[in-house]
Amino acid sequence: MAISIGIVGAGTMGAGIAHIAALNKCTVSLYDINEEVIRRSVERINFEMKRSVDKNKISDDDMKQALTRIKKRTNINDLDTCDIIIEAVLEDIRVKKDLFKKLDQIAHHTAILATNTSSLSVTSIAAATKKPERVVGMHFFNPVHLMKLVEIVKGAKTSSETITQTIAIAEKLGKKTIVTKDTPGFVVNRVARPFYSEALKILSENVTTVEEIDRIVKKSGGFKMGPFELMDMIGNDVNFSVTESMFQQFFNDPRFQPSHIQKQLVEAGMFGKKTKQGFYNYEEK
Amino acid sequence: MKKPVKSEKIKSKKVSASRSKPKTEKSKPVEVKQLICLLGDELLVKEYSAAFQEKGIAVQELKNLSTLKTSAKKITAAFELTLASNEQKEKNLQALDETLPENVPIISSSVTETILSQSKHSKHKHRFVGIAAFPTLLSNSLVELSPSIHTSKEIADEVKTLFDSIKKETAMVQDGVGMVMPRILCQIINEALFTVQNDVATPKEIDEAMKHGTNYPHGPISWGEMIGFANVVAVLDALYHSHHEERYKVAPVLRQMAIAGIFWKAKE
After folding, report:
1. How far is A74 from chain B (nearest CA, A)?
2. ipTM score for this prediction
3. pLDDT of residue B262
4. Given A81, B88, B169, B231, which residue has the most CB atoms within 10 angstroms?
5. B181-260 has which CATH code?
């Protein structure tokens, strides 16, 4: 029987999860309070799938079938029959806690409630529900249809049954999984932190330039992207706030200290590609 | 048309042109038969030796210093590839400096100690160039170099040309502990080991996560194993001492691995 997946929040991550779920023969209920957001989200899924068809990764028929599996929902109560509800709303603990309280009331009693948080405590979100043993972290990476990994996060009260079921669902979505404890940044965001912070430290010591550090990291280290082009792509505002949040959650451990250079870029509104200015200039000449 | 390298500014005079014969053919390799002499850590000597030989450049791996004298006049560049700053490295550098003609470049791994500090007792400080010689990195296309404040432009250019001839790009960075790539890489490996220490996930899962969640070329823990955990610790300790900052403290489990020389969980 097909798995029924509810997705709350039709932004970039929500759309990405809906995309892979529908392609992997799950029924998808894509919910957002804003109908326009859902419409654009489905358009985007359409666009991405078309690209996969063009690259011969999926067939035209796969795409048509997949799109019929996505139901647009603007009433949250319609998620009551889902086997799992994955939350992908903004990274604000109060918003998430309120949402989980509500989901706890409407979801089927055996349903799993998953959060796609990348930097908040799953344990804390779970505490807003009456069944924290059914709450789990499912951390997808952007772009969801290309990145193979899902971090499955075990909160303090998450049951091992929930973990087993969540792993099975993630595998059904074609993902590789790892199980991590509920600690700040889980694995990927934590271990990747020095990639940014040490590069910023080196820059602050004037060892060499932004361009040279990126060139060295790519051509001497073999990384696909340099730290500064990657920060510009992620958004310096996003990257800085994740660093700040982790610094705080690790009780000001100097390993996670944010950088003044990046703070200043954020203050100047130089978020990177999306504002056309960051470590690099993206204005067309 | 003098263009000094960034950190050099002050001097470049007494570097007479004993071997830089005709001034006209500038960037072309000089018609001297190259002989590269290598000594230091076995792993690095092997990597560098292979890289030069592959491109048809003769190398001499020096097992001990006594053989240096016999070939000294034929050597066109010397590599000291001991990663840690220790007595042996000091001895090697001193012997190279005393034996080789004064305009033969001495290229020394400067990941754990600045090239300025390594060359401070030399009479020919102008010929020392630091290099980010660090296991696993030479398989890629770029080599990081750092001239000291004394390094002459001629020597820096000669070393750059040497790497051009084996199809490696070069990047000149300021003379600082860890340079760029080893410094970032060791901090990533250290954080991966802190994550193991805190039992957040297994070493295998952490490696998988970094390969598939962020497209890293290797999992950080197996990368650390390839580099040698002792080398990773050497870099972090050097950074800790040069900066006096807690951000470079070594994960206790990483230090244990460095001492044991193995990783207890990586194989499972």
Report:
1. 31
2. 0.93
3. 64
4. B231
5. 1.10.1040.50
